[in-house]
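Subject: Interface between my chains keeps coming out wrong

I've been trying for a while to get a sensible model of this assembly. When I model each chain on its own everything looks fine, but I need the whole thing in one frame so I can look at the contacts. Pasting all components below, labels as-is. Any help appreciated, I'm running out of ideas.
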Amino acid sequence: MTFWILLWKSVFILTISAFSVLAVWVTFQGARDIKSLFASLRRQHESGDGEA
Amino acid sequence: MEQLQELLAGTNFTALDWAIVAAYVLATVFVGLIARKFISGMDDFVVAGRGLKTALGVATITGTELGLVTVMYSAEKGFTGGFAAFHIGLIAGIVTFLVGFSGFIVAGLRRQKVLTIPEFYGKRFGTRTRVLGGIMLSFGGILNMGMFLKAGAMFVVGITGLSVDYEWLVMLVLLSFVLFYTVLGGMVSVILMDYINFVILSFGLLAATALSIHHIGWNNVFETVAEFKGEAGFNPLVEGAFGPDYVLWMVFGGLVSCALWPTAVARALAAESEQVVRKQYMWASLSYAIRNIVPYFWGICAFVFIMQTPALEQAFFPKGEEAEAVSSLYAMPVFMGRILPMGVIAFITAAMIAAFMSTHDSYLLCWSSVLTNDVIMPICGGKLSQKAQVLTTRICVVLVAAVIYFVSFVYVLEQDLWDYMMVTGAIYFTGAFALLVAGLYWRRASSTGAVLALLAGCFAVTGLDPVQKPYLMWRLGMSAKEVVVHMQGRDVSAVIGLSTVALAVTAMVAGSLLFPDKERPSTQGDTP
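Reply #2:
Try treating it as a single job with all components included. I did that and got this:
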């Protein structure tokens, strides 16, 4: 049982730590991606291929 | 019912918390309005013009797949299975990473430039398979989604202390808001909402986890699980825990949730390039692990809290044969309602409602676009204009919402929510697994094999408790009560699920070899 307790403790701590880093990165980079997505959709509409 | 209401009354949720949650929900309405001006065609409505980059892709995959229903069924699994349930999250993360690394299924699908999975069936196996695939997917998907609304309402009622009598109203209000911005904005609004929800949800999850540990105590969690559950609370393979067949079923479940489930695959199809798909999956593997592991931990903390609070222990684990236990789905919300302070509880509730919305919007849009693209369009001979397609999809969104609202009322959930989800999902994904793998990687796969494999998926329905019970009563000559006792601790959903996979693959192979297509389709997938 000791092995499993140690395994799940490690899995929990590692995933939580990695997710914290991911959350911060996605928060900042995702905002940039949204800007870029809207710019791309705007360009598509202006060039008239939104129906493509 | 009275006992449950008494338990719910112990929450820390106040009027100020209600105001914060209401402000958040209303703000989502504006997102629908903002996104509307970017929609002009079906590509914009369903795959956001295929302009999704990595970080936004991770946010939207997480926003969709980390729904409130995920939190509810995972917390329930943690509550009933202890730390042994962690294997499901760990496997899901590893499998998703491997799918991203190898590009298995998802990269091939992105290369086909299709809008939906059944559209690929159509390209590869013909219109008949596309329509049948669309119907099977929608049937399994809508049935699967039937419990989302119920689980969402149980969370809101559990954490806020609202009367259980108002669950129908909570479901109606939540569904109405989701409908509003999904119908208006399509995928662009869904992606925008998913991003906002990701931010709120991620930090909400981390905060609630820290507060749970602070309240219960890190060592106390492990010691209490060991005391009440023994080794079965940690080792998924030991007798009394999940068992090897269940673990194997979860390996397949991990593949399904990232590479076969249409809402997840929709993100792959909306990605800017194949490279982005792979990167998106490798990063999102963390979210796939965390979306299970964190709620399992909450469920485990709820278990510890309940076992150390006599009144709650009596409610959830009553002594005496006639006493009826409170549903284990209420354990986590009741626990959160009691340990989170005012203000923080609103933040967490808003995060969970965000999770509810970001799942519902994607699911509604996904099933509706499948019905439009893959069932209605082929039946109409492909003669619908872009405008008519968007309108049809919007009508389907409303109809699907009405159906799931109805299912929430009529279906009585008698097994763990997660197992219900896997079984109903299997109606679609067992056949889909055979079709996608064979369609992408096997030249000789034929349309007859594809149809047989899709139909084989129907066998999964025998894994549902309401189907098993009448069968056992007839087969074993038992009364309803005796069957309940007989079924305790005998979850056969994993065995039925794995058998259905084997049946679908066999049907695909046998059907293809015995009835090969006379003409090869124009698309041969990724066959080397």
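Reply #3:
Confirming on my end. Residues 3 and 9 of chain A are 10 Å apart (CA to CA).
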